[in-house]
Fold this sequence. Notes:
- By secondary structure, the protein is an alpha/beta fold.
- The protein has a single domain (63-220), classed as Vaccinia Virus protein VP39 (Rossmann fold).
- It is 33% helix and 27% strand.
- The protein has helices spanning 9-19, 39-52, 65-76, 95-102, 115-127, 158-173; strands at residues 20-25, 28-36, 85-89, 107-112, 133-136, 148-152, 177-182, 193-202, 212-220.
- The strands form two sheets. It has a seven-stranded mixed β-sheet with strand order 5-4-3-6-7-9-8, sandwiched between helices. It has a two-stranded antiparallel sheet with strand order 1-2.
- The termini are far apart.
Amino acid sequence: MAIEAGLTPEARAAFIAQETSVLPVPHVPEIRLHVAHEAISLWQRTEDELEAMGLPPPFWAFAWAGGQGLARYVLDHPEVVAGKRVLDFASGSGLVAIAAMMAGASACEGAEIDEFAIEAIGLNAALNGVSVSPRLGDVIGIDDGWDVILAGDVCYEQGMASRVIGWLERLQERGASVLIGDPGRSYLPKARLEECATYMVKTVGALEDNEIKKTCVWRLIPQG
């Protein structure tokens, strides 16, 4: 199915349904997601088409290692989100947001800059029987009073990592709790983080350097 500019939300949802299968997440089998049938085929085909439309590659079609680790941690430690307003930043498939709602968050927004991801978040939340509020747009620099910010796999590019960490530090300084899931990305600022948990996570080997990624969940700590 080709991607066309100006697709309606219904057409984007139809594309996602056609190009994915519903499967349990390897490290979080309590949660099912719409994931790509053929990882490389979908990635290569849609990356070119989406780039021409000014949209990001289909990050929403995969359960990335950092998100899996973060979702596992949230489900195993529900007290970190229970009764709280949560932001899942760079939500992708909505995996971490879904885990937050299953763990008892009072509300959770899944923030994304990709309209296809917004549809995927809604589809996946419904699939798992929870309500997540998809939020389209760049939220870096915004503070809407969230109690907890969850961020998986956000340190793979230097420029983005610098912007994101600076923003998260400001949110942490005013009292928010910040957790980051990361499988050893190059630009993770470990000196500013406290390790909470480590997992060995099965991921998409065709898109990563290994089928099993050592993945840590980190807590952002105050500077100084």
